[in-house]
Write a structure and sequence with these properties.
Oligomer: single chain
CATH class of the largest domain: Alpha Beta
Radius of gyration: 20 Å
Distance between the termini: 20 Å
Shape: globular
CATH superfamily of the largest domain: HUPs
Order of helices and strands: EHEEEHEHHEHHHHEHHHHHHHEHEHHHE
Number of strands: 10
CATH architecture of the largest domain: 3-Layer(aba) Sandwich
Structural class: alpha/beta
Low-confidence stretches: none
CATH topology of the largest domain: Rossmann fold
Number of helices: 19
Largest sheet: 8 strands, mixed
Number of domains: 3
Length: about 375
């Protein structure tokens, strides 16, 4: 079986995601595996609903197997998000290609990556970071100095990160970049409606069924909606009592940022906190990420990936798992167990995951049960198209 891998959030799984799986099947990939973010996502927010429903919707919509992208990588920068996703998928031992969507298309993104590599070889990016620019700003300026085009569209940036992660892993797995239809924030006028636009309509109480594949919608239509504002006072309370020295050990806390967050902790809400802290050196996205990672206690040095956790699958997904048996370089599990929690190789990751999911449970309209991750296991979903 020829198998493609995708790194995704599916927040929610929409018709654009279905289109991606259809393109892959037309290209001869019989199986599709997704490494999906759990209950927290890369934009430093809670997912709109829990990972179990989102994974089930993805399988109902066209994916065959969903494996969780562990928390520290799911909320990390584009480079670490990509690195974690690439490692999860390639660790299965059966992935023939990595697929992603991007705004500019495969050829344009490939040229941008080549220009980025040249800028790194010449030391231009390091030089600009030393001058105080953020990494994304340094990349943009360096590539343009070399006469290359630079796209700041989020999926173009991620496609570059996947290419870099594959190269750093010395992986022979090719990247298949599919041009997106419509923009990241699009309402569907130029193509498929984006996840961002769908979430806005969900929050407003507007109809959103038509933006999702029918079977995916069935798994999500009654889902309890998470909201970061329900955690807001707890986050602010933490930062009012934390010390800058303590914060420096957490992911995303670049030099000077911990002090700025502590000094701004009298903010009235999170939006106010972000606005007080952000600067040209610390853009809004970096501030949000650091604030969330500090609250979730994610260490500066991300823990090693030590297991592959299955969230949902269908018959084809079950066959993929059978093929992976004996080939996977990490153990595959269908749920967390107390034994994993006590194993030194996995304890740090499991502790982070459990603690974050306890916090996520409080972002729901009605708080979820304590230790619910121990209560859940992988779900088998009927084969797509049946």
């Amino acid at each position: 079986m020829k198998i493609a891998g995708i790194v995704a959030e599916y927040n929610p799984f929409h018709k654009g995601h279905r289109y991606q799986t259809e393109i892959l099947r037309e290209a001869g990939y019989e199986g599709v595996v997704a490494a999906m973010s759990g209950n927290f996502v890369q934009r430093a927010d809670v997912a709109f609903t829990d990972k179990y429903r989102r994974a089930a919707a993805a399988v109902a919509g066209g994916v065959d197997l969903v494996i969780e992208l562990p928390l520290p990588y799911a909320v990390a920068s584009a480079e670490d998000f990509a690195r974690g996703g690439v490692e999860i998928l390639t660790s299965l031992g059966v992935i023939d290609a990595l697929c992603c969507g991007c705004e500019s298309g495969d050829e344009s993104n490939r040229k941008q990556y080549e220009a980025l590599c040249l800028a790194e070889e010449k030391g231009l990016i390091r030089e600009k970071i030393r001058r105080g620019l953020s990494y994304p700003a340094a990349c943009k300026e360096a590539v343009r100095e070399l006469g290359g085009a630079w796209s700041e569209e989020p999926n173009d940036v991620l496609a570059l990160a996947y290419r870099k992660a594959l190269k750093e892993a010395s992986s022979s797995t090719p990247l298949v970049a599919i041009q997106r239809k419509g923009s990241y924030y699009g309402d569907g006028g130029e193509g498929f409606e984006s996840a961002s636009s769908i979430r806005k309509r969900i929050q407003k109480g507007e109809a959103w069924k038509d933006s999702l594949p029918d079977l995916a919608f069935e798994h999500l239509k009654n889902a309890p909606l998470a909201d970061l504002t329900r955690l807001e006072r707890g986050i602010l309370a933490y930062y009012r009592t934390a010390s800058a020295e303590e914060l420096k050990g957490f992911y995303g806390m670049r030099e000077g940022l911990a002090e700025r967050i502590c000094n701004a902790s009298e903010a009235k809400d999170l939006a106010d906190l972000y606005d007080r802290v952000k600067t040209k050196r610390f853009p809004h996205s970096a501030v949000r990420r650091a604030v969330l990672c500090g609250y979730l206690k994610i260490p500066k040095n991300l823990p090693k990936l030590s297991y592959l956790r299955v969230l949902a699958f269908n018959d084809r997904g079950q066959e993929i798992l059978r093929q992976a048996k004996g080939k996977a370089t990490l153990p595959i599990c269908s749920g967390l167990t107390p034994q994993m929690h006590t194993d030194p190789a996995t304890r740090e990751m499991v502790d982070l995951q459990l603690n974050a999911d306890e916090i996520f449970a409080l972002s729901l309209p009605k708080a979820g049960p304590k230790r619910w991750d121990f209560l859940e296991s992988a779900r088998k979903i009927p084969q797509f198209g049946k």
